[in-house]
Amino acid sequence: MSSTASGKHGTWRNWGGNVTARPARQVTPASVEELAAEVRGAAERGQRVKAVGTGHSFTSVAATDGVLIRPDLLTGIRGIDRTAMTVTVEAGTPLKRLNAALAREGLSLTNMGDIMEQTIAGATSTGTHGTGRESGSIAAQITGLELVTADGSVLTCSAGQNPEVFAAARIGLGALGVVTALTLAVEPLFLLTAREEPMPLDRVLAEFDQLWAENEHFEFYWFPHTGSTNTKRNNRSEGPARPVGRAAGWFEDEFLSNGVFQVAQWAGRAAPVSVPAIARISSRALSARSYTDIPYRVFTSPRRVRFVEMEYAVPRAALAETLRELKAVIERSGLRVSFPVEVRTAPADDIALSTASGRDSAYIAVHMFRGTPYQAYFSAAERVFTAHEGRPHWGKVHTRDAGYLEGVYPRFTEFTAVRNRLDPERLFQNDYLRRILGR
Description:
Elements (H helix, E strand, L loop, with lengths): L11 E2 L6 E2 L3 E3 L4 H14 L3 E3 L15 E3 L7 E5 L4 E5 L4 H10 L2 E2 L11 H6 L16 E7 L5 E5 L4 H7 L8 E8 L1 E2 L2 E10 H6 L1 H7 L2 E6 L5 E10 L8 H25 L4 H11 L3 E5 L1 H5 L7 E9 L3 H15 L7 E6 L14 E9 L5 H12 L4 E2 L9 H7 L3 H11 L8 H7 L2
C-alpha cells in the first residue's frame, strides 16, 4: 500500500482520504531555480501556489486550485558538516530515506515522530513531533533553512541570518514561501533501548510526572472503553544492540499492529456495538517487550491502517485532568471509539507557531478508522482540549480559527507580521490559511 498522495486525473487526495483538491497545474521542478520560476509564473498569472509533501496532513493545509508544487525531484543530502554536526537536505526528501542515509553516515537526528512517510519539509512545516523530555519536534532541530518567497527570490535564514524569519519559518505552514532545503542538527549514531509494557491508566496518570522525569522519551496509548494502556519508554543505551527479532517483529508490528488491527477496525465499523469488546481484547493483545536498536528503528513504526486524526497540545501539567475529562466524555456519550488515544510530550521551544512554543506540552491524539464518522467524537474531544488552552496540530483535523489561535499563541502576531512582509499579496494563501491566520 502506497502512503503517498495520489494525483490521478488532476485530482490531489491526501493520505487519510478526507481532503481532495483539483489544482489547475501540478509541477515537479528539478531545481530551486525551476521552482522559483514556477512561483514567479504563477504570480504573473494570478494563481495561488502550494507545495505538497506526501499528503500526510489531515487538514487542507496543502490544498489549492492554483499551482501545486511536488518536491519529488528535490531530494537527497546536499552536504554534511561534521564540525558543526549538521546536515543540509533537500526539502522533498522522505524521512525514511533521510534516516537511512544518516545511519549509513554514522549520524542520527536526536528525536523524531512515530512515522517516517512524510517529506522533511512537510513534516517540519506542520510541526511533526515525537515525544521527549528534553528533545523537541523535528522543526526544533532545524539550524537553517532556504525559502523561495513570493517574488521568486531565494531567502536563507538561521538564528544569525534573518532571525525573525527563522523564528517563524521553521513551522511555516506553507504560508511564508516554499521551503527548498533545511539544515538540521545531528549527532553521532546512538542506541536506544525501548521498554514497552501494559499499565493501568489510573497508575499512568498518578505516576505520570515520575514516568516523564525518569525517561528521555515516554509515551503511552490508552484504549477507550478500558482502563488499560500500553506504555513505551525509550532511553539511550551503551548496547549491545538487541533488535526485535524478525519473527517477533512481524508478529507484533505487522500481524497484530497492522493486520489484526485492520480486521478489528473493519468489524468495529460494521458493528459499532462490538467496539468495547474489541477494545478489551486489543488492550490485552500486546505483551511487554524490550529491545535495543538505532534511533529510527525504535522511534518509528509502520502505520498501514488508514485513519483520520485530531491532536492537541495542552500544558504538560494539565495532562492528567484533560485525559480524565476525555475518558468521562467518551463514557457518557455512547461514542464507540476503536482506536487508542496516543499521549506524548515535548519541552518548550522558541518557534512562533510551534504547538510547544513557550510552554512544556503534552499531546493527546484521537483517531478514527478511515471511513468511520468521526465528527461527533472529534467535536467532543476538541471541547475538552480547548477548555485547557489546547493548541491544535497544524496537520490534523480541528475547527479553530485565527481568533482562538491568537489567544493561545503568544507569538501569533509576530508570525503574521513576517507573513505580511514576505507574502503581502497572499500568493501562498488557501482556505485553511485564511481560517487559521486571518485575512
